[in-house]
């Protein structure tokens, strides 16, 4: 079986990422502000299910991820959720949803810009009329900064995490390779190396808006790090909210 991104590091992913409390609060504020705090919720690229945990009291949960290893981790946390291994460019769940989430830099890791249209179309087809689609993206300013920065290193427990980002020489939007290495204890005297390379691109805000406009309505975008401020040229992480048609 062909491996998917994150298969190699799935079992140590949560340790590497660290605490998600601030992310949960930010997302809860978005849902509350948009009046969508119950119903059916689908998270695309749900990973280990860490964000879905926040909403198990109010929503019927579905998570989808391309990585079988990530889905296995999510099942341990969310035995009552519907968890599906599938590609978000071509998925079909047979259901519709009040809320669909695509968070962090997950869409950035779809390395062809034309394929973003496929993701948006699939999401729109699964979103109920007036349902809420929340999209979080790394913007070009962030990839520019990461590509020029030294390697990032941190520890979590006994795990050691290193990420190096290198710009890819290719035409089109800015693209980078994220080289992730996790050294995790295999025995009292030895460490195991878990390694993964993630490819990522970033598109300009106007380009993303145009793509979303083909599938959704009432598109708003904010600078994640500046709270309620609109996104701008220096925005590193943008959050787009859209409504389903109909």
Task: Describe the structure in your own words.
The chain is α/β, with parallel strands linked by helices and 246 residues long. It folds into 2 domains: 172 residues, Vaccinia Virus protein VP39 (Rossmann fold, 3-Layer(aba) Sandwich); 61 residues, S-adenosyl-L-methionine-dependent methyltransferases (N-terminal domain of TfIIb, Single Sheet), CATH 2.20.25. It contains 6 helices and 11 strands. The strands form 2 sheets. Strands 3-2-1-4-5-11-10 form a 7-stranded mixed sheet, sandwiched between helices. A 4-stranded antiparallel sheet has the order 6-7-8-9. The longest helix has 14 residues. The protein is globular, with a radius of gyration of 18 Å. The protein starts with 12 loop residues before the first helix and ends with a strand.
Brief summary:
GO terms for molecular function: transferase activity. 24% of the residues lie in helices and 36% in strands.
CATH homologous superfamily label of the largest domain: Vaccinia Virus protein VP39
CATH class category label of the largest domain: Alpha Beta
**Total domain units:** 2
Structural class assignment: alpha/beta
Give start-end ranges of low-pLDDT stretches: none
Radius of gyration: 18 Å
